[in-house]
């Protein structure tokens, strides 16, 4: 199992495609003082007057658009709100750039978007519409806000922290796209938002040192990005990873979950973190520990093996 | 000439493609009270705490990307900063969604973006990178800020206002894309930003009732969008439109200028508006007047003809 997981994750496109971030970002690193955080975080953190604002943008993978435009439209909203949630913030509003090949796709994308906007209670407040393209795409950016002392960053994991996931296991592999673990379309707005708000509550209570929303690279891949960005390493125990029934473990590790976060917290705060995830309707579980050596190791049945050595092969290169 | 202008503008893709906005927007109109303005403006206006924020997004037309990826990357920044400038605001930061087909296009787009970021002195603070698509695209969103009483809206033209353009005539048709009037690549940062800041100064002094940045629909098309959104009409005198030498008039009317704005102001404030544009290095000119009937009429050599009747054929349908 251990060798298979490592082989599968190393060749997983959802992780590999993050390699391109580092070289891209290095072209744009010159920031004024009011930019508190930028690339590498789920959202940039900017100080404007007295306010701490979050700004993020997410495109929808072309594979998803080809598979199901309605679900792509829905996800374009969900993933952006998820980014703001992952930082411990509140969403304020979205803008979109919608590029459409034909009327049928248009109807599907906008219906998916409208459904998600309603469920997540966030307004679409502007954007740009390209009615005349060959290929359809939906890109969305989001503005959020947060309290200065409550923002949860990805680069602040501390050696000895427990690695904890908080994730909604109650869902289904989306019928249109087998890399999406859908836990929101079948639930009421209040329930979905309660799960998303778990990070905000963790931030308010100062319970975690770092955190990130689980996205395309999956549960382990996203945790790896957090550890790399924190200039740390870690050991993840595969047997501790909470997994839904009726899904293969490898498949699960590649899922983009509807609502899921990976955080690190001190031993002292760990039980409170788990309690908070539980109160939010998520399954919280300690899955490993942050280490000083810059390697992400996996353990299974007492055996350990390195998945990524960040000294030699980063996920993002950040 | 008058008939030719009307025929050409009515069939101009840069204007026609705006028809799709109205039906799109009507799916997303449910906004909370802190959203002061949204669709139809160059940027949404949102109140967050004590701050007035601007949020906008712009995609680059696929035709431009096909013609010249470097220029497309440059424009992706310029048009977003132009949006914030058009509202009388200051840019704070940008996020991008960059989708890349191959390494050569990647180098060109990012080089164009980096050049524009430096010239316009705005930071790129985050985004999303798709390294593995068939078709390349660059979408950018921008956060800006403004003072509550100084924001310039598109929907507030008043009957009897003069219609005034402030535009940089000192430029060239871009060699890669004949719908772009490039006035920025050959100029120093300070000069470009001075022109862009003209609107901020007009807002500070409260000199205009409405305004908009001139974009893809061109000088008359953009003015038409402003009048339609203000639920007014207007008469534009073709002979008064400032035009560079060595370019055909029809061609000029379809240009996306590097720096150009259309505003409306009372007769009383008109000379101050013209002065402000001049001080900003732009050519300011009264080109017409706002009227009550919801028609955009054009005049040439004493003859008048309707270009758009907003009662029956809107540009955006907003």
TrEMBL record, chains A, B:
PANTHER family attached to this UniProt entry: THIAMINE-MONOPHOSPHATE KINASE (PTHR30270)
TM stretches of this protein: none
Gene Ontology BP terms: thiamine biosynthetic process
Gene3D superfamilies reported for this sequence: PurM-like C-terminal domain (3.90.650.10), PurM-like, N-terminal domain (3.30.1330.10)
Top-level taxon: Archaea
Annotated Pfam families: AIRS, AIRS_C
Annotated CDD domains: PurM-like3
Domain PurM-like N-terminal: 40-145
Protein name: Selenophosphate synthetase-related protein
PurM-like C-terminal domain ranges (all copies): 181-300
GO MF annotation list: thiamine-phosphate kinase activity
